Amino acid sequence: MPRLALYALAVCVLAVAAAVVSFARGSWLGVVWILLLGVSSNIAWYYVRKAKNDKAAAAAAGR
To answer: What are the TM regions of this chain, as residue ranges (predicted)?
Structure first.
């Protein structure tokens, strides 16, 4: 898995934890953490798919 995807996945986990804490304390700031979770998960998927496509293109070019 690419390094940037791992970093984005770590941000996802931290955003979930922050959202849970925020909502448990009765703060609506958790909504911001949920939005950050969505963005970071999309970034993680983007880099995973990009690495997969780059690998497939390199294999096809090597044939």
So the answer is: 28-48
pTM metric for this prediction: 0.84
Helices (H) and strands (E) in the chain, counts: 2, 0
How many structural domains compose the chain? Answer: 1
pLDDT tens-digit series, residues 9-56: 999 999 999 999 999 999 999 999 999 999 999 999 999 999 999 999
8 A C-beta contact, residue 15 and residue 33: yes
Task: Give the pLDDT confidence score for residue 22 in this predicted structure.
Answer: 97
Closest CA relative to residue 33, chosen from 21, 47, 25? 21
